[in-house]
């Protein structure tokens, strides 16, 4: 328990990243499966983009869970270092920001105002929203990880 208290609150940011990526993983896996089953893709680009989102979600679930557990456990090996988590967060930020930005220009349907609550338009909008959420969480967590060493040694 002492390691958990010492870790401050950035393990919770990694936990939020994990949970958000799990939601993205489920939604994109469903959309890819449904699209493959019905053969209804708005464009090949949209299909490839969903696969990118699926990759990002798996990547984020695997690594953010590992970092969260290493932080809480107090691991001191190379992969559990602040530098490695900042590098991973930088790569993840690029992946999520790129995917969400391209999705914004690729998905059709605008703001989905006159479509049923359960529709491809709203599902695509949710994929994009979760992508932007992951992008923001990556940036916030990266800033927190960079500021962590400085917060351990405050100026007196």
From TrEMBL:
Origin: domain of life: Eukaryota
Residues spanning the membrane: 12-34, 46-70, 76-97
Keywords: Membrane, Transmembrane, Transmembrane helix
Entry protein name: MARVEL domain-containing protein
């Amino acid at each position: 328990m002492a390691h958990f208290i010492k870790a401050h609150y950035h393990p919770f940011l990694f936990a939020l990243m994990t949970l958000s990526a799990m939601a993205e993983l489920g939604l994109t896996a469903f959309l890819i499966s449904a699209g493959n089953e019905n053969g209804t893709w708005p464009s090949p680009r949209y299909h490839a983009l969903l696969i990118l989102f699926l990759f990002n979600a798996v990547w984020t679930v695997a690594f953010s869970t590992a970092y969260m557990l290493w932080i809480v456990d107090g691991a001191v090996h190379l992969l559990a270092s602040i530098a490695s988590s900042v590098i991973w967060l930088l790569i993840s930020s690029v992946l999520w920001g790129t995917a969400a930005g391209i999705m914004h220009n690729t998905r059709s349907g605008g703001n989905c105002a006159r479509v049923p609550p359960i529709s491809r338009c709203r599902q695509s909008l949710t994929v994009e929203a979760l992508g932007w959420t992951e992008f923001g969480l990556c940036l916030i967590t990266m800033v927190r990880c960079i500021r962590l060493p400085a917060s351990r040694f405050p100026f007196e």
